[in-house]
Amino acid sequence: MPNIERELPLFPLGGTVLFPGMNLPLQIFEDRYVQMMADITNDDSKFGVVLIKEGKEVGEPATPYDIGTVAQVMQREDSPDGRIILVAEGQERFRTLNIIQQRPYIIARVELLEPEEPSISQAALELREKYIDYARLVAGMSNEWMREVKVPDEAAELSYLVAQSLEASMMVKQGLLEMDTSEERLIAEVEILDLTIEHVRRRVRREGPSQRFSAN
Predict the structure, then answer these.
(1) pLDDT confidence of 77, banded at 50, 70, 90?
(2) DSSP bridge pairs for 75
(3) pLDDT tens-digit profile of 108-138?
(4) What number of other Cβ atoms are within 10 A of residue 113's Cβ?
(5) How far apart are CA 76 and CA 27, in angstroms?
(6) pLDDT band for position 208 (cuts 50, 70, 90)
(7) What pLDDT is attached to residue 55?
(8) What residue spans of the chain are helical by DSSP H?
(9) Is omega for the bond preceding 104 within 30 degrees of 0, making it cis?
(10) Residue 51 in contact with residue 174, Cβ under 8 Å?
(11) 132, 151 in Cβ contact below 8 A?
(12) Is the distance from CB of 205 to CB of 215 less than 8 angstroms?
């Protein structure tokens, strides 16, 4: 079955890769994006979040990566100074087919990528345990204690949560977003977490644990 195509306004960001199921807080103040929010309010309140490949968030239209995530406005507050404060939720991923408008904001023709099938795999089980260790290590570095780390079992949902949470470069996160299957993403995330956890533990051994945290 061919993927569904639609027109979608794009919001290019320089420091954010949004994954399905994850929340994105935004403060909108540029005139072009205030106009975008007004336009999508009259439609389905959806826009595309894409990482900038070339250019900047302000000024001339930036060139984004082709793969992004549909975001739907879930909460919105209009401030007296004209800013829009909102929380959007990632929906399905999409691929940009062509740009049909550059100004005042970018509108693209996109194809919505098929949702990844729910599954539980050995890679998902392994990643789940590593992510729990990682979350506790990070909390410990901030002198906090996490009794319970809520982590989904389902593979695609887990892969998106971990990808959004990782302290990794935007290029790494974009690469994870672009992977075709959750299994491929899970395996990559296991490798990333192995390196990250070892780095954090070396830092703890070097700096010393806090009073409420042990590296063991």
Answers:
(1) very high
(2) 87
(3) 999 999 988 778 888 999 999 999 988 888 7
(4) 17
(5) 10
(6) low
(7) 82
(8) 31-41, 122-141, 155-165, 170-178, 182-207
(9) yes
(10) yes
(11) yes
(12) yes
Tell me the pLDDT of the chain averaged across its residues: 89
pTM: predicted TM-score of the whole model, two decimal places? 0.88
Taken in order of first residue, the domains within the chain and their CATH numbers are: 5-112 (2.30.130.40), 122-207 (1.20.58.1480)
Integer angstrom CA distances of residue 191 from 27, 210, 216 = 34, 27, 20
Is 59 in a helix, a strand, or coil? Answer: coil
Phi, psi of 200 (to 5 degrees): -65, -40
Residue type, 201: R
How many alpha carbons fall within 13 Å on the CB side of residue 133?
18
Residues 6+ apart with CB under 8 A from 95: 66, 67, 110, 111, 113
What's the CA gap between 203 and 58, in Å, rounded? Answer: 37
Q: What is the pLDDT of residue 214?
A: 37
Residue type, 8: L
Q: Percent of the chain scored above 70 by pLDDT?
A: 91
What amino acid occupies position 212?
R
Is residue 189 within 8 A of residue 163, CB to CB? The reply is yes
pLDDT digits (tens, 9 = 90+) for 150-170: 899 899 999 999 999 998 999
Q: By the 8 A CB rule, do 179 and 188 touch?
A: yes
